[in-house]
């Protein structure tokens, strides 16, 4: 039994040393290059030469362009100014917010161009009294969240539906009604 254990351990050691021993190094290749390979390398270098000169020319043009950075453009808008009022067309007077034209003595101009607000979104909240909808209206760089009965620019929000808002122009003599839908 002892002899079998010694042979097993010895065989295991021999097997481990055989598995972990490095393999024989490959024979070194011939460092000489044949004349055919030299000709092929020379032809490749001649074929690539025009392309490398084009690349060098483009790199020189890029370096010249980057040496003179372009002038910084002036901003078209003021990023710190939000909303505000736009100048009124000649002959019209802005209605003070929260008032009706009857109380201010405002007389609308008949030929003033009519610009309608843009409906951006409609939100709804379920409450005790049912669904309460609010609309997000945008006009002349002004954006406001309104409920029915509130004033936006020169319009009163009459009703808010699931996908449109009915507004009334308070500056018109006939109190014109418009429906603005989500685009």
Description of the structure:
Helices cover 31% and strands 24% of the residues. It has helices spanning 2-20, 35-67, 101-104, and strands at residues 118-127, 130-139, 142-146, 151-152, 155-160, 164-169, 177-181. The protein is built from three helices and seven strands. The protein has a four-stranded antiparallel sheet with strand order 4-5-6-7, with no helix packed on it. It has a three-stranded antiparallel sheet with strand order 1-2-3, with no helix packed on it. By secondary structure, the protein is an alpha+beta fold. The chain has a domain at 101-181: SH3 type barrels (Roll), CATH 2.30.30. The radius of gyration is 42 Å and the shape is elongated.
Our Rg estimate from Cα atoms comes to 42 Å
At CATH level 2, the architecture of the domain at 101-181 is: Roll
Report the oligomer: single chain
The helicity comes to 25-40%
Strand content: 15-25%
Q: What is the H-and-E element order? A: HHHEEEEEEE
* Derived structural class: alpha+beta
Q: Name the strands of the widest sheet in spatial order.
A: 4-5-6-7
| Arithmetic mean pLDDT | 80
Distance between the termini: 93 Å
CATH topology name of the domain at 101-181:
SH3 type barrels
Question: Class of the domain at 101-181, according to the CATH hierarchy?
Answer: Mainly Beta
Shape: elongated
Number of helices: 3
């Amino acid at each position: 039994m002892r002899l079998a254990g010694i042979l097993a351990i010895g065989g295991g050691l021999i097997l481990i040393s055989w598995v972990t021993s490095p393999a024989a190094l490959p024979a070194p290749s011939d460092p000489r290059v044949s004349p055919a390979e030299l000709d092929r390398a020379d032809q490749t270098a001649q074929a690539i030469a025009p392309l490398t000169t084009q690349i060098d020319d483009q790199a020189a043009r890029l370096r010249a362009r980057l040496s003179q950075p372009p002038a910084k453009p002036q901003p078209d808008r003021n990023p710190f100014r939000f909303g505000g009022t736009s100048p009124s067309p000649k002959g019209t007077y802005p209605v003070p917010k929260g008032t009706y034209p009857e109380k201010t003595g405002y007389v609308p101009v008949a030929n003033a161009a009519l610009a309608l607000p843009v409906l951006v979104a409609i939100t709804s909240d379920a409450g005790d009294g049912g669904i309460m909808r609010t609309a997000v209206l945008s006009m002349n760089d002004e954006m406001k969240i309104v409920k029915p009965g509130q004033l936006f620019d020169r319009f009163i929000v009459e009703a808010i539906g699931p996908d449109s808002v009915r507004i009334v122009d308070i500056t018109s003599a006939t109190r014109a009604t418009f429906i603005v839908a989500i685009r």
